[in-house]
Fold this sequence. Notes:
- By secondary structure, the chain is of the alpha/beta class.
- Helix content is 40%, strand content 22%.
- The chain contains eleven helices and seven strands.
- Strands 3-2-1-4-5-7-6 form a seven-stranded mixed β-sheet, sandwiched between helices.
- Helix 5 (83-92) links the parallel strand 2 and strand 3.
- The termini are far apart.
Amino acid sequence: MLNAEQLRDAPLNAQVEFWNRWNAEGREAAIAQVSVDQRDVIVGWLEGMGRRDLKILEVGCGAGWLCGSLTRYGSLTATDLSNEVLQRAAKRLPDVKFIAGDFMSLDFESSGYDVVVSLEVLSHVADQPAFIRKMSSLLRPGGFLMLATQNRPQLERNDIPNPKPGQIRLWVDRHELAGLIGAELEIRSLFSLTPQCNRGVLRVINSSKLHSAMATVGLGQIGRAVKRLQENTWLGWTLMCLAQKPQAAPAE
């Protein structure tokens, strides 16, 4: 078992190499249900804003799989460590401004964005409070942070290999996430999403084959109810958080 310091210790060049490889082998090839569900929540939040002129920043965009959905709502800047992957994404998505590099070292317009989106990045950052502070500093007063991260108690119920060289892994639970984000922003919504488990009773309950069979015999509603129950009891793979930067105080 790796200790906390080992999980935090990964040179930047090793991280770049890992994420270039991971995205090339993963997100450039296929999008899993966990990511689909995250995308649908983000799109729902953006739809609720009722605007198409937003200035959006995506932090940790990976292969750019979400960018096509985000550009429907305004101008998009997207950044990631995966420089090789971003070169390919830029050819597919010429309307997106891609910036490769370490987010914590890059310069962006302070208080310049209506929305900052970050999916499954927080757990791969060594200094999580500083990461949240920087994203908050880039939001305009009244702007929104839309964030997804792995739900530690649920992932610990799964059999997951140890981190590979260059992979930082610092999962959080809902209380830790609320503390991190609540220190900078006003939390509007926090919930778990997408029950998923590869061992024990939850593996059977969440089996896609079981749910397909239930739908075939007209019991799909029961399967959906079980899914909602698990999400409501924090058994989702993902923690989703919508948070807002406080409006500037009126001048006296």
